[in-house]
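Second attempt. The first submission of Aspartate aminotransferase family protein had a stray character pasted in from the spreadsheet, which I only caught after the job came back as garbage. Lesson logged: always re-copy from the clean sequence file. Corrected sequence (441 aa) follows.
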Amino acid sequence: MANAFDGNDELLEPETKELIRRRSAVLAPSYRLFYRAPVSVVRAEGVWLYDAEGRRYLDAYNNVPAVGHSHPHVRQRVDEQMRVLNTHTRYLTEPLIAYSERLLALFPPELSKIVYTCTGSEAVDLALRVARYETGARGIICTSHAYHGTTAAAAEISPSLGPNNPIGPEVILVDVPDSYRDDPTAAAEIFAARVKAAIAMLGQRGVGLAAMIVDSVLSSDGVQTDPAGWLAPAADAVHEAGGMWIADEVQPGFGRLGTGWWGFTRHGLKPDLVVLGKPMGNGIPIAAVVGTDAAMDRFGRDIRYFNTFGGNPVSIAAANAVLDVIENDDLIANASAVGARLRSGLEQVARRHPTIGHVRGCGLFVAAEFVGDPVGREPDAATASAVVNELRDRGILISASGRSENVLKIRPPLPFQAEHADHVVTALDEVLTATTKKKSN
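This time the job returned cleanly.
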């Protein structure tokens, strides 16, 4: 995993060492910590996290607290609902219906039905079941370094989980165009051709095409955002072959890209199913599958699906509060403006430091790719890792992404402001300047 703690605790404070020891004694080894010096956080507010000594860290990475850590409006609504009622959806509760009406009004009209789950992984798992049942086929196409979740079915379409995570025999992986190294004007054609080849391969395997699932910002594939619309021909190919398009909006959704509520609309897509995840409740467990009548109808009639506390009143209260904050604080426009400022600042840093080969992104989902040199464009994961850790030491939390783990991924809570963007840019410039001086000495 990119940026994982390597277990070397020689430079850590005794209190941190002891906490890591206790953690390792009770938590399974599948858990990972970030950074060469893990951060021990005790509270968070807005775009800041605080450690036990009171030092604050700017959160430039966590998309789950979409409207900011410990948001008072979310806390208030959750507390009010917790004091009244929290139960399952087999009872008739008005807030569930009202929120569903409100949420669906943010989607194109053909996306008219919702099923609630507790996690994005469950939602992905359900979307795959729906697609396979409706089409009668089994084959799934996903991108070659995707992450879609941790259930058995979701892990089978999540190659970014590593080489020891098996990809399902009914799954075909396709490489995404590289907007840094490939001709961006050919991205749509290149990707559609790869998807058509994958569809043919599924036919040869005798499983057919049920669906293609794509994270609309290609986050784990290194954040491949441009040009807008490049996914559309691939989606057309999927529909022509009788498959469904599943838009994974767990990361780009709820206004993060600054171009509207959902990442798929930026590409002009008409998905059959849309997967939503943890940001919809600011971290309170709620997720969903939104779909067309045609996609949802037969599965819903024929198969009993019940997620015990998916869409419970407390989680619905959190989700409603998130929509309140996004709308009242104009956070979609904020994502657009602050994201543009952040990208502009990073591009200026890249002009001074050629180890940043490419800056890209949309809204508050921004990437800076590190390379050994701007001519050969060989990925430089070591520099990316060093920068992530140096920024952590300067009080900025961030991480890396991409197949080569060389892409700085900046994905902060939506209330991120201009001064926060400028702080990230200035600190990155200082880190790279210090690194250059150290190398020259």
